[in-house]
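Researcher: Here's my situation. A collaborator sent me these components and asked whether they could plausibly form a single complex. I don't have experimental data yet, so a predicted model of the whole assembly would be a useful starting point for our discussion.
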Amino acid sequence: MVKWAGFLFNADDCIHCKACEIACKNENQTPTGIQWRRVEKVAPELYLSISCNHCDSPECFRVCPERAFTKRKDGIVQIDEDLCTGCGLCVTACPYHAPQFNPETHKVSKCQMCYPRQDAGLPPACVEACTTGALSIVDLNQFSDPEATRTLPGFPDIRITCPSIVFYPPKPRKRYFL
Amino acid sequence: MKDGIYRNTCPRNCYGSCSILSYVKNDRLVKVTGDPKHGFTKGRLCAKGYASTQFVYNPQRLKYPMRQIPRGSGNWQRISWDEAYTIIAGKIIELNQRYGSNLACGYNKFSGNLGLLHYAVEGMFNSLGPHTKPIGNPCALTGKHAVNQSFGDHYSADPEEMARANLIVIWGSNPAVTNVHQMKFIYEARRKGAKLVVIDPIFTRTAEKADLYLQINPGTDGWLAGAIAKLIIEKGIIDEEAMVKQTIGWEEYQQFLHQQINLAHVAEQTGVPIKAMVELAELYGKVKPAATWAGLGIQRSDRGGRSISAINSLAVMTGMLSDPGSGLYYMHFEIEHFPQRLACHDGPVHPTIPHSREVDMSHFSKNALALTDPPLKLLWVASRNIVTQDQNLHSWQQLFQQLELIVTVDLYLTKTAKQADIVLPAATHFEEEDLHVGYWHYWLSINQKVLPPYYEAKSDLQIARELTRRLNELSPGFSNFPYEKEPIDWIKTELSPEIMRQYGINGYEDLLDGPHKKVAQTHSLKKYNLFPAIETNLLQGDQQQPFTYRLLSPQSLLKIHSQYECVSWLTYGETDNIIELSTMAANEHEINENTKIEIYNEQGAITGVAKINPTLPRNVVLASQAGSNPINQLIFQKEDHDANGSSTFFYDSIVKIRKGRDTHG
């Protein structure tokens, strides 16, 4: 069976340390403000580490007039910056704010799931950097776990694009507040 | 350096002391990764570490030595290293002639870079003979004393062993923010069924992850530890025979708990309901092995030593004696086992002055001001940002006025550097050699020089070598610093036969292949002291007045103290000067989210943006360190009662709140 590369994000294990976000910048040397990956607090005690989700039905791919986006057999969505004219249609179309417009170059760039690393058998930089193992990659054609969910509260509607990401939600905890 | 991958070590004052693999191409750092051979970090860094390329190639870094005339004017002129050395050496010699010794010269250095070769600053001053030197440790000394009293030695268990615990109780520490690599060991334990308990006044990111979280009034941890101990004894879930055999003061301790600890009273003081105490006592009494972590946060208060002591006693009762997996965690001081040849360098003997003058770091400015005959006239600042981090700033301003020459060595033009006459550009860890031993994990690692200096930056060691050589040119025999020794010579000196045996290496070359973990623990704990007499004192209650708030200023995720403030990858999207207050405090002062507020006390006032944190205790406000309006302006250290010195009691600062005055800007 063909591989379907996707992210697995364990919200229960994520500590919001942002190592994934900065490791992405370290690997790809993206300028300040170009956030291929970012960690966000979406609700009290709920953090999401989000990049391009390499959707099964990518809106960026659909709306781009220059056909700058391609989807590899393993599902990774790439952008060819040489074809990008900076029209910004993908930026507004993507529910996850994955395409990042650079006002200096007038080009859009985004997470390419570190495909050169993956092709060399290495995990994406963000996954390698995750000290708790909260972020990992899985083959969604193989992955199955009844405890995993397709979405989490605070994550944009998945019905439009069918993002290649699955989640483990936070578990309930016991607290005594003052 | 040839293109390739080299080994560095993050030198920050942090639990991680992470080994870094540096990718160098055309003499430039192109990226970094963690070192998979490091058993604690297991190939990961933190966000700050991953921002290393921006840290090194930062347009705000100091490029050249500069002189500011007059001081504080902002009128900086580039000078050569040669001119800088001539001015500084000339002043040192002139002061020596004026006062007949070098006591008028002193330094203030702390934790900006923890590498062993950064003791070059101490070595440089030692090489002048008697001078004025800081002693103590504002970060951890109070807890260190308490641990030494309990165990007769420094003690902190191997953090990788935490993965074997079935119960992990964290008192006043927030590893999810300050010690991120520890979290995977905690999770590993939890995946095998362990429970994580967090006790903290703040509902931290670690607390969010806890199976059981107990919010506690700040400074009252000792009470809670006493109550848990009492409950465990009453329930009989304790190895009494081991206590009798291996502890000192068991009878008195039991008596103290029996007579002095009243659960209802403890509940009132700590804010922890009896039901929660019973729950924790059940876990502590029955689940083994139990790891106990006495966090640094607890001892940032004048009741902190007693609280750490009470937590130590609880750890002894709950398995430390019988089960090696039941460790106590604080931090360790393995570095003290190293020769530390630079720090211990013997200077020339003065005919009449036997020793240097020592000034306690936690009261440096006040004590330095009190010095006469001679007064302090020259201050060297390295690895330190006094103006954003130290307390008692009013006396610092007085001290600055008294000083005739202030030299600051730093990577950036910090708020402290701006108060200097001369700033000298410091090298990053990628531009110098060094050797590092952690204070949390037990790994030893080398730091290679992998980059040419950024413009004219130099290491503390190189500066010490060049300045002392200049001193001797101007006044032969003035310093006995061995300036001919290269960094690698100092590294070899630190790797004494005993150290090499402990870490299982045959020479520094072994460290080029990866970090090495200490093979054998040197401490052999035999007897444990339980301290009822000390703990009796913790029964004093908190006398906080209404409408006053305890100011807590813990480390934030993307900085260490004021370091990394200039790294835009890290600061992007972050807001400076946030002051968090409870919903109740906001209501009391009719303060809304995101409005301008002031917190103030007799030291001064800080303006910030209000963030209402519904999980914060009513009597606590929370602010991060450094930034454009540093919180240390409100911190004042009271007189110290401990003759051996103490940590700085940052968390004893009390503030009031008012709405921000509507001024422009």
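Model: Some features of this prediction you could bring to your collaborator: Residues 81-99 of chain B form the longest helix (19 residues). The two ends of chain B are 48 Å apart (CA to CA).
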